[in-house]
Design brief:
The protein is α+β, with helices and mostly antiparallel strands. The chain contains twelve helices and 14 strands.
C-alpha cells in the first residue's frame, strides 16, 4: 500500500478493489472495459491507474469521454504523468476524445480527488488521498471540471424550531408517510429503489441509468453492513415517491483494524463489525420523483432521515453533493451542518 503509513489512510476491505476491476466484474459485464496499469521503479510499485471505457455513459449522454480511476502514486509528478499518458493512449485507441476522473470505476461508485479534509479518515465509499494529489494532477495536464462537497451534520443537537415548523407544515399539506426498508421483501424493495434512483437522479451531471443487475450485485455486499432503519422511503398516494439511502460508516471499523495484516486484519474487522458500536453514518443518496419536487418533499425527507438516524448515530456525513446543488447544501446548513471535505473531478483532452 503506497499510503499505508499515513494515519488518515483507511485500507479497503480485502479483495474489494480486485472485485471492481477484474474482467468478471459487474461493470465489465454490463457497462464497458477496465484496463488496469501499474508503474514500477526498481522492481517496486510506485503507482497505478485504470483506463476505463464506459459505454453506458457514452450511449446515454451521446458522448465520447474516456475515464480513469484507481489512480494512486508516490509524490513524484513524473510517475503520475507517465500513468496518465499510458491510460490516455489506451483510451485514444478506443476512439475516445478526453479522459475524465477519477471514477472507481463509475459515477455510481466512489469518485473524486480529496482536496480538503485529508487530515482524517474518510467515510464509507468515499476516497482518500494525500494532499499533494491535486497539484500532481494539474502537473500531469488534468484540469478541474467539477467540485463536490461533503457536509457533516451533528445529530445530538435539537433541530432548529423553524425547521421543525416547516416540516410539520409540509407533512400536513402533503399527507405523506415515511417508512423504512423492509428487508424481508428485499428484492421488491430494490426494484423500487432502482425505479426511484433512475427517475430522481437523472438531472445530475454525468448521470447514466443504473441497471437493476448492478443494484442487486451491490446489495450482496451491502447486506452485510446495511442498517435498515436508515434506508427511508417517502410515500404519497399509496406509493413511494422518494427515498434516502444511508449506510453505517464501517470505515470506523476498517480504520481501527488497519494495524493488522492478512487474515488477522480480516478477523479483527469481522469481530469489530459484530461488537463495535459505529457512531457515524453517511447519507449517500436522496431523491424525489420529478413530479413531486415542488411540494417540499426533498426537505421533508432530508429532515426525517436525520431524525431517524439520531436514535443510533452521533453524526451524519452527506456526500457527495455537487457545489451547484444549492437546495441540498442550504438544507445541510439549516440542519446545523458544515462543509467538512472537498473533492474535485478532472479532465483532459486526448487525441
Amino acid at each position: 500500500m503506497l499510503h499505508g503509513t499515513d494515519p488518515a489512510f483507511t485500507p479497503p476491505f480485502p479483495g474489494s478493489v480486485v472485485k471492481l476491476i477484474g474482467p468478471k466484474s459487474a461493470f465489465a459485464h454490463k457497462h464497458g472495459e477496465i484496463h488496469p496499469l501499474i508503474a514500477y521503479r526498481d522492481g517496486k510499485p510506485v503507482g497505478r491507474i485504470a483506463a476505463i471505457v464506459n459505454r453506458s455513459h457514452n450511449d446515454h449522454n451521446k458522448d465520447s469521454v474516456g475515464f480513469f480511476g484507481f489512480f494512486d502514486f508516490i509524490n513524484e509528478p513524473a510517475v503520475a504523468k507517465a500513468l496518465v499518458e499510458a491510460a490516455a493512449a489506451i483510451l485514444e485507441e478506443k476512439g475516445l476524445t478526453s479522459m475524465r476522473g477519477p471514477y472507481n470505476p463509475s459515477i455510481n461508485d466512489d469518485c473524486g480527488v480529496l482536496t480538503e479534509g485529508n487530515e482524517r479518515p474518510t467515510f464509507i465509499s468515499m476516497p482518500w488521498n494525500p494532499l499533494y494529489y491535486e497539484s500532481v494532477y494539474k502537473a500531469a495536464g488534468l484540469e478541474n471540471i467539477r467540485t463536490l462537497y461533503a457536509y457533516d451534520i451533528p445529530l445530538h443537537r435539537e433541530s432548529p424550531a423553524r425547521v421543525t415548523k416547516i416540516v410539520n407544515w409540509l407533512q400536513k399539506r402533503n399527507k405523506v408517510s415515511i417508512r423504512t426498508i423492509d428487508m424481508k421483501n428485499l428484492t421488491k424493495e430494490l426494484e423500487t429503489i432502482h425505479r426511484l434512483y433512475n427517475q430522481c437522479l437523472d438531472r445530475n451531471w454525468g448521470f447514466y441509468p443504473i441497471a437493476l443487475e448492478d443494484l442487486l450485485h451491490a446489495a450482496d455486499d451491502l447486506k452485510a453492513i446495511a442498517d435498515p432503519t436508515i434506508i427511508v422511503f417517502i410515500c404519497l398516494d399509496g406509493r413511494e415517491v422518494g427515498f434516502t439511502l444511508a449506510l453505517p460508516n464501517v470505515n470506523e471499523v476498517f480504520h481501527a483494524a488497519r494495524g493488522r495484516k492478512g487474515i488477522l486484519r480480516f478477523l479483527e474487522m469481522a469481530l469489530r463489525l459484530q461488537f463495535q458500536k459505529i457512531k457515524t453514518d453517511r447519507l449517500t443518496v436522496l431523491g424525489v420523483e420529478p413530479a413531486y419536487r415542488d411540494k417540499g418533499l426533498s426537505a421533508l425527507l432530508f429532515f426525517e432521515s436525520f431524525r431517524i438516524a439520531k436514535a443510533k448515530y452521533e453524526l451524519s456525513e452527506v456526500s457527495w453533493v455537487e457545489a451547484n446543488n444549492t437546495e441540498i447544501l442550504e438544507a445541510a446548513e439549516l440542519m446545523g451542518g458544515h462543509r467538512s471535505r472537498t473533492y474535485e473531478l478532472f479532465e483532459k483532452p486526448i487525441g
